[in-house]
Amino acid sequence: MKVCSIGLRGMEGYRVQVEVKELPGMPSVAIVGLADTSVKEARERVIAALHAFGCDVMNQKLVIHLSPPERKKQSPMFDLAMAIGILKVKGKLEQPIPSHIAFLGSLSLDGTIQPVDGMLPAILAAKKLGFQQVYAPYDPAFPFQYLQHIDCVFVQTLDQVVQYLQGQQVLFSMSQPLSDVHPPQKTHRDFEHIIGHEYAKYALEVAAAGEHNVLMIGPPGCGKSLLAETFPTILPCLSHEAQLEVLSLYQLAGEVKNDSSPPFRHPHHSASSVALIGGGTQPKPGEVSLAHRGVLFLDEMAEFTKKTLDMLRQPLETGKVTISRVSSTVTYPAHFILIGAMNPCPCGYFGSKKRYCICSPKQIQAYRQRISGPIYDRIDILLSLEAVDLTEKQKQTECSETIRSRVEAARFKQYERYGEEITNGRVPIDVLLAKSPLTKRHQQLLQHWAATYDWSNRVQTKIIRLARTIADLAKTDDITDEALWKAIAFRRIKEGRQERNMKRGF
């Protein structure tokens, strides 16, 4: 007897064929097919669940084979398929089981079917693999309104599965929506509550519109963390496809997310490289993947170990992270906006107008070199912040909702230009230049500044992407002189003033 299920390697699903056969010999149940401990323990769970159902399996030898045998099986998701295969072999289930049906779920000892980590990506993978129907346990965290195109049969017990296969009505079905993804949670943070920092707010608006990375450098208490934590309020809500990707990653990591807002991850600077990138014996998504389609905020960025920060090179460049282990190699998506914040020096007051810096030039240079050149190259906007004088009269600023509307309009313009849901910060550079070519004058200007500041080709590409986003916010079809100048200013603001001060002996 053959019954189908779904295995996962990262977020990639593959067909698992559960083969059950009775053989002469001592009564036993053996599971083969490169199963790990969680799958081998299914033997006792399945035997107990079938005993509760009224089927005794300990009167003959049974062999359960999980195919393909060369792939390691690492989840208790195959319990239900094993039980159905044994019931069919034992004659307790007479109806034929088509090959286009997949069974997912873990069994408890009384026959209850329970969800496990990775149920949502497994259901989505079943659709891609051509399965027409999926039996799975009910999970209130599922975004049912996004799964209408998948024929899911939600069951609670093994008895319900057998009844449904025999033609009786099921308790749950996709025709009865049982849950909904909540709207974005209201937050008390808003850009209109932040005093000053008008230039930084505009820079973050550009970063949100084009998905550009930002590094903020300033003395303690100047507002770096406040700006970063308010940044998600100007990001558009996730689309249906993006919401499914994010929920799948959170399920694989065993975490909960039930709203449509972009994720915001804020790991502590003591986090290990495995926590940030992902890994483990059975590779799980790390912070960079949990920030997929959202924001990864690294406060006190220079306090992270250099090795950990350098591991961000691949996800910042490719939008994915590959984790290699002896048993398998998995790839997780990691398209995120990096927001970094750090002090200008160890004491924090280099360049301050009100406090004296006690750090030597050598200490300042060593502190900044904790962030390597390749990481600096992958950052689009470099901001130097100063403390705001609260005694000065401040003008009224825009609220986050107004800024978000402009960000959404700019993103819609980019989606129309490229014909897909991709922004200026992610689109391949050849496509960007084909849609928005630079004039000869713009090329000469960019080459001049690149030679002056010794910018790499990657930095020049970042400036072109920034200029295109600035033009989109200004609602112009082509990259203008003003847009290019603003993009150059975003990159040289830090290097222009503070680096010169260091050369003078600060």
TrEMBL record:
Native species: Anoxybacillus ayderensis
Record's protein name: Competence protein ComM
AAA+ ATPase domain span: 210-389
Lineage of the species this protein comes from: Bacteria, Bacillati, Bacillota, Bacilli, Bacillales
Homology family: Belongs to the Mg-chelatase subunits D/I family. ComM subfamily.
InterPro entries hit by this protein: AAA+_ATPase, CHLI-like, MCM_dom, Mg_chelat-rel, Mg_chelat-rel_C, Mg_chelatse_chII-like_cat_dom, P-loop_NTPase, Ribosomal_Su5_D2-typ_SF
Domain of life where this protein originates: Bacteria
Pfam families reported for this sequence: ChlI, Mg_chelatase, Mg_chelatase_C
Family annotation (Gene3D superfamilies): 3.30.230.10, P-loop containing nucleotide triphosphate hydrolases
Keyword terms, alphabetized: ATP-binding, Nucleotide-binding
GO molecular function list: ATP binding; DNA binding
